[in-house]
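Hi V.,

You were right to ask for the full record rather than a summary. Here it is.
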Amino acid sequence: MKILIDGHMLKQAHGGVSRVWRETLGRVIAQCPAYEFTLYLTNRARKGAPTSPRVRQIIEWDLPPRALFSAWSQWQARRTRADIFHSTYYTDPLTAARRIVVTVYDFNHERLPGVTGSTHMIEKKRACIQRADALIAISEATKNDLIEFCRVRPELVTVMPLACNELFACTPTLPDEIAAFIAKHRLRPPYWLYVGRRGTYKNFSTLLRAFAAVAGDTGGSLVVAGGRPELETHEIELLIAHRLEDRVVLLPGISDDALRVAYAGAAAFVFPSLAEGFGLPVIEAMGCGCPVIASDIAVFREVAAEAALYFDPHDVTALADAMRRSLEPNVHVPLVAAGRKRAADFSWEKSATILRGVYESLA
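Predicted structure:
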C-alpha cells in the first residue's frame, strides 16, 4: 500500500501539531514494513522528517519562480498514485488517492469564535473533514466536537491519544540540576511554571492575576517557557502595578532538556486554557513528576483524570487557591505520584499502533 502524507506541519520547530508527527511518523513507518511512504514537505520541514529507505521525500522548494516549483512538486505527488492521502493540517488532497485520512486536533476556533476570530480556518477545516474517509481525533473531547460541529458519523472517527517524549518520562532530574536552573534564572522559590503560547484561548492573563494574588505571601516566581519573548503591554502594566516585574521569567527558546528540569523543580505546572485538543504539556509535566493545576474542561479531565488540581478558568481566586494548595506537602506529594502513574498510561508507540490500524482498515 502506498501512503502519501502532507508533512507541511513538520516545519514547526515547536508546537503540539509538529510534535505529534515527529513522534508518530517514524514509529508508524517502522510498524508498517510492507507499506511505501511518501512525504510531501516544504524545504523548512525536511529537518523534522524521518529518513528511511522506504520513505520518499517530495520537496516543495521555496524558491523563485515559486509557482513553477510548486507545480513541479504537485505533479510528482500525483505520480505517486497513492492509495491513501493523509492530511496533517487540513490541506487539499495532493493526489487522487483512493482514501483520505485527516487528523483533527481541536475545535478551539469553533468553540470560541469571539476569541480566536478565524472564520477562514473554520471553513477550511470543515471542507477537509467532509472529504475524509477516516478521521483521527487526538482525544475523546475532540471526537465529541467533531460529531457536534461537523456532524460526522462516529464510526469514521478513531481516537489516538498523545504521549510525552521519553526525555520527560524516563530521564531522572537531579537536585543539582534544579538548583543550577534556579540560580541561572535568578528565581525565587517556590516557582510555578507555564508552557507554550499565551494568546487568546490560552487565558494567560488569568494566571498572571492569580500569581499577583499569591506572590506576596509565598515570595515565589512564575516561569513562562516558550511562546513570544515579550509580554503584552497590559500584562507588563499588571506586573508593575503589583511590583512583580522581576518575579516573572520568560524563557522563549527553552530546550526540551531545560524544560525537563523546569518541570521537575516547579511547585506546579499551571494550564489555564479555555479550550484545548489534548494538552501535551499536561502529560510532560506529569511524566517529570510535576503537579498539574489545570482548568476544569473536559479534555483535561480526560487526560489527567484524578492526577491534577482543577479550577474554573474564569475564576482568578480559585486558581490562586490551587496554586497555594500545590505548596502543601499533603497535596504536592500525592499529585506527583498520581501524575507519574497517569503519564505511564500513554505512549507514542501506542499512538503509532492506532495510526497503523487506521491505515490497515482502509487497505
